[in-house]
Amino acid sequence: MYKPLPIGIDDFKKLRENDFYYIDKTLFIKEILDNRSEVKLFTRPRRFGKTLELSMLKYFFEAGHDPGGFETDNSGLFQGLKIMDAGERYAKDLGRYPVISLSLKSSKQPDFGMAFDAVVNEISKEFDRHNYIISGDILLPEEKEQYIRIRGKRASQIEYATALEFLTRCLKKVFRKNVIILLDEYDVPLENAYFKGIYEKMADFIRSLFESALKTNPNLEFAVITGCLRISKESIFTGLNNLEIISIMNKNYAEYFGFTPKEVESMLCDYGIEGKSDEVKQWYDGYLFGNTEVYNPWSVINYVKAVSADQGAFPKPYWANTSSNSIVRELVERADGSVKQEMEELIAGGSIEKPVHEDITYDEVYKTEDNLWNFLFFTGYLKKLSERFDGEMVYLTLAVPNTEVKLIYRNTILDWFNQNIKKKDFSALYRGILQRETDVLEREISKNLMETISFFDYKEDYYHGFLAGLLKMMDGYILKSNRESGLGRSDLLLLSPAYEGVAVIMELKIADSFAQLNDSAHQALCQIKEKKYELTVLYSYLYATIQKITTMAHRLNTNKQFMVGNGILAFAVIFVVVIFVYMSMRLQREKQEERHFIESYTISLVKGFAGDSISLFVNDSLISNKTMSEEPYTVEIGRFAEQSALLIVDNNTELVSTFDLSEKGGTYQFEKESDGIKQLAK
Of 16, 286, 320, 524, which has the most beta carbons under 10 Å away? Predict the structure, then answer.
């Protein structure tokens, strides 16, 4: 029986006591102890396991007490895990220290007052968690009074600014041991403050809170801090010389945030879906922390849960739906020509090179393009391919990590474009379509393509979405996308009101070169004809007609008109039913005819194809896809359409060669030369 997957579970005790699936990261404790420094700051993208790691540290080190003040034993949470086999020198620290654990993720609020109150609330909860220490006689009366004020959220601002230091002092007096401080999502209040215009006030408060607890505090054993972005020392950690920063650039600790390929492989095997490894890698792999390859853990867990329940489940951008994408939107909106070009290169699978700045402040993110690119890198929207040192600067070669992140860029760009088109005048474009002014249509589409990021990935789906966004704004017209049409699915279908009787069928094709434009256009026209896309138009207008007649009949609501109205309605229903039956029979007959052509085609690749990966298509049907190991290669197929076209695709170069096939069938031989593929004379 499979263990439940810990989606949204970031409490280590809850995870272990309820027997959730757990990838053992407990040797993180060993590394913390081996490489002990007074204050460690770990920066990783959101949803990469930072909160769970801090929770693990809390339950390992803390000398726990329940609300009644009785000691608790957390050793059972670690039985069977790697840290217990690491040696006695590490096990002896289990349950040895008082621990302060504070998360600032709730401080994402609309103004400073509410953000400050959110931090105060978290401080109050931590004081309440240690409330047992004021029951004895160790603390002085004035210390107890201050403790109660902070716990009750009645303290002054300066008392809250120094609350962590005060709590370390109280815990040290009670336990006679130095205190461990764990701070999670330290930069959330700063990120929120920047976007809300309260950065300076929040930075001052957070600086006071941290400095008092972390700088020259004799009651501090060590501290571990996590966040998404490395903030410059000058901004928050002023004068904190005992701070060690471990970003995604560092080689140490790399495997403890996110899943390694080996861990993902083991997880897929445990849930019996090892056949999905390629799909998981394409969608959720691609991060490089130090020199360690890392998968997005949040997305992997969600995907495994979905596929375990339904083997046919498709991958989804799970991380995209939980992480803030405002920075990507900002980059798109601020993009000039050079930035657009770089984004197109990235989305098309290319790379860019940028200097890296590890310590920036939120109020500097938008000052330069380099800062924006750095922000995208450190927050998980870009990955490092390589790095080089030039003089005093480190340069990174950056790329999009995986399909999931690529979709964030694509969807953000499309959303931005759809918002922008609402402000534009497209009357010339619409006139060009309805009046068949091809030169106007070409000019208007090209102009709008140049004004957005087209990310030249040579796929129809972008251009499909682009045109759909333009056409859905036509007043009075209905746009249908990828709907059943005749014998297939048309890309776009534009329908006027039924009484106007105007319809536009659009089939999109991609040409690799200007020379292939005519061939691609011919293929599109042939497809529209062969697939009977016009039948959908007839059905749509018939349906609209019966609706209109029905409405008219209902409006004839007087006694004298009742029989007349029902007579009209009955006639209309019979008429439409007859038409539908006729069209259905015609369609069925055409399908049968297409299945019973007696002619056949013999296709032979005679010379010049050895070693090439070649795909053969007849119309839209894939006939063959293989690497040519011998010549000649011959395939025979039956004719299945009134008019047929052969497409020979070189999969390595993506070049497409198109040839018409006779209605009478026959043998067709082809030879590849330096200037392309030629049909040999019969």
Answer: 286
Quote the CA–CA distance of 649 and 657 in Å, as a whole number. 6
Question: In angstroms, rounded to a whole number, what is the distance separating the alpha carbons of residues 354 and 374?
Answer: 8
- pLDDT exceeds cutoff 80 at 580: no
**pLDDT tens-place string over residues 607-639:** 888 888 888 888 767 788 888 888 888 988 888
592 & 607 share domain: no
CA distances from 102 to 63, 69, 110, 169, 219 (A): 17, 20, 21, 16, 17
Give me the number of domains the chain comprises.
4
Whole-number percent of the chain with pLDDT over 90:
40
Q: Which residue has the tokens 């994408």?
A: 325
Does 377 fall in a domain? no
pTM across the whole model? 0.68
Show the domain range for 123: 15-247
**In contact, 548 and 575? CB cutoff 8 Å:** no
What are the two backbone dihedrals, phi and then psi, of residue 196, each rounded to the nearest 5 degrees?
-95, 0
Same domain, 141 and 229: yes
Cα(523)–Cα(527) distance, rounded to whole angstroms?
6
Is 379 within the bounds of a domain?
no
User: One-letter amino acid identity for 213?
Assistant: A
Q: Are residues 264 and 216 in the same domain?
A: no
Nearest CA among 608, 667, 641 for reference residue 523: 641
The answer to whether residues 232 and 124 belong to one domain is yes
Q: Residue 303 has what pLDDT?
A: 96
Q: For residues 151 and 187, is the Cβ–Cβ distance under 8 A?
A: no
- For residues 492 and 291, which has the higher predicted lDDT (pLDDT)? 291
Which residues 6+ apart lie within 8 Å of 610 measured at CB?
628, 629, 630, 631
**Tens-digit pLDDT profile for residues 394-433:** 999 999 999 999 888 877 776 766 666 666 777 788 888 7
Please say whether the beta carbons of 44 and 246 come within 8 A: no
Q: Is-contact 12 58, C-beta < 8 A?
A: yes
**33 and 181 belong to one structural domain:** yes
Question: Are 591 and 624 contained in the same domain?
Answer: no
- The answer to whether 209 touches 163, Cβ cutoff 8 Å, is yes
Per the prediction, the chain carries an average pLDDT of 81
Q: Which residues pair with 646 in a beta bridge?
A: 618, 659
Mean pLDDT of 370-383: 86
| 196 lies in some domain | yes
Cβ atoms of residues 93 and 61 within 8 Å:
yes
Residue 118 has pLDDT above 60, yes or no: yes
What's the pLDDT score for residue 572?
46
Beta pairing class for 39-43 and 243-246: parallel
* Helices 326-334 and 369-378, packing angle to 10 deg: 160
